[in-house]
Amino acid sequence: MTSIPTLDTERLVLRAFVRADAPIVQRLVSERVIADTTLNIPHPYPEGGAETWIDAHERQWQTREGVHFAVVRRGDHALLGAMGLRPAMHHAHAEIGYWIGSPYWGQGYATEAARAVVGFGFAGMGLRRIFAHYLARNPASGRVLAKLGFRHEGLLRRHYLKWSQPEDVIVCGLLADELEGL
After folding, report:
1. Measured at the alpha carbon of residue 88, what is the angle toward residues 155 and 85, in degrees to the nearest 5?
2. Which residues of 1-24 are buried (b: 16+ CB within 10 A; e: fewer)?
3. Which residues, other chains included, contact 116 with Cβ-Cβ below 8 Å and sequence gap of 6+?
4. What's the rounded Cα separation, in Å, for the pair 148 and 141?
5. pTM surpassing 0.90?
6. Which of the residues 9, 29, 71, 134 could staple to 141 if both were Cys, CB 3.0 to 4.6 A apart?
7. Cβ atoms of residues 99 and 118 within 8 Å
């Protein structure tokens, strides 16, 4: 299988993470607000956690367990966050997940990157469905997905524990034949 592809958008390059990205990843995800708005990022973020996470990416891609993209701003090459798919190829579907560093919130980067990754999932990986779970108290994540045409599919009440508190999670999905202009 080939290496993780590079995806280009108007303002962004989505590429494989490299070990040199680890200090920036560590800094961005160490903010409590990032852990607070995501399902799987711990706080405090463990020292060396970014290296361990990055080191797993190529194997995950080769075994079709996942693909992770560094979201990089085209002009200055700033690493803004991460976007990825966790597929179940035998079902031809994948879960999309992402985080953007808080200094870059509200500028449309998550939507632009997600549009590219969703397009890659359908056209490049042959997926028929992409879905997402997000915390009900994080409506910004829901807006990113809604802009791409994801449909609300349900509410999982008290589904996850975050900071030892039960959290409601919203599920939404997009089918390949629902794509419009991605």
Report:
1. 75
2. eeebeebebeebbbbbbeeebbeb
3. 7, 8, 9, 12, 14, 83
4. 11
5. yes
6. 134
7. no
Domain boundaries, the chain: 7-131
- In angstroms, rounded to a whole number, what is the distance separating the alpha carbons of residues 16 and 55? 11
Average pLDDT per consecutive 10 residues, the chain (182 residues; last block may be shorter): 91 98 98 94 95 97 97 98 97 98 98 98 97 97 97 97 96 92 57
pLDDT of residue 2: 79
Q: What gap in Å lies between CA 28 and CA 38, rounded to an integer?
A: 13
Helix (H) or strand (E) holding 94: strand 93-100
Asked whether 104 and 70 are in contact (CB, 8 A), the reply is no
- The CATH number given to 7-131 is 3.40.630.30
